[in-house]
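Hi team,

As requested, here is the filled-out complex form for the guanine run. I kept the field names the same as last time so the parser does not choke. Let me know if anything looks off before we queue the next batch.

— J.
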Amino acid sequence: MSYIYDSNNQLQIVQILDGKTLSVTIQRELGDEVDLLIEKGKKRPHLAAVIVGSNPASKVYVGHKIKACDRVGFKSSLIELGDDITQDQLIAEIEKLNEDADIDGFIVQLPLPRHIDNQAVIQAVRPSKDVDGFHPVNIGKMTMGLDGFIPATPLGIITMLDRYNITTEGKKVAVLGRSNIVGTPMSILLSRNADIGNATVTLCHSRTKNLDDILRNADIIVAAIGRDRFVTEDLVKEGAIVIDVGINSIPDQTKKSGYRLVGDVDFEHVAPKCAFITPVPGGVGPLTVAALLMNTLKAAKATS
Ligand code: GUN
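And here is what came back:
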């Protein structure tokens, strides 16, 4: 529970959804499960990550994923490829990972260089090793409520809602952004007939009319459009639950690095109105990593 002053200098109670601490808890639980597997003589779960080119943000994200593998006792492999690799060569690398019996699951970090067709790459990953949950087979299974891999960021968000005992049934949800990685799967998950689901979801995008009204009516907002502090205080109703998926870097001369990270939500002004809100950093990001590990353990258990 946190106390925050609102714009009228009134003290408000708001619960910060602490993704960082929850991610540590989940990783501890996963580590215990790995110990049990090893005690039973099973093989250590193994995640591989492919990174193409030198996008600095991608390098940081993949670094977090590899470090997290070490923490929970997974084996990990990092495959770094130059940005001059052809699509055929990249798909040949993916084929090797598909065939490698020691690798339980792998990811190809996005974005890819412009000369590579993302969909061709995503569809080259064997669905049973697609721990990112991006393959159409896994998206289809998720949509139909069948068991498969759920994309890591949406899985992290529903895990966070579940662990904080936040119910979604019957609630009005506005999902902002329709990417294949976050917005679209999030809207499907929250619409499903499931414990964390049964919500009435509006998926908002660049052509949405009356966006302000939709947001102001929402009990839950999931912001995933990559626009710095787009969701302002006037767009959020009192007592709303706000999940901020954005990670935007803005100039800040008070920082040694010269920049700081902010979300898609104007946290400082929105937080006092919320029942629950995720911070940036330390909210959804760490949960995405935990969810990837959850998927990898699931892949390992399916074959051992
Ligand atoms: N780029 C941004 N988010 C993700 C993710 O969850 N997985 C992969 N592979 N690339 C990303």
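Two things worth flagging: The chain has ten helices and twelve strands. Residues 107-110, 132, 152-153, 181, 288 surround guanine (CB under 6 Å).

Thanks,
J.
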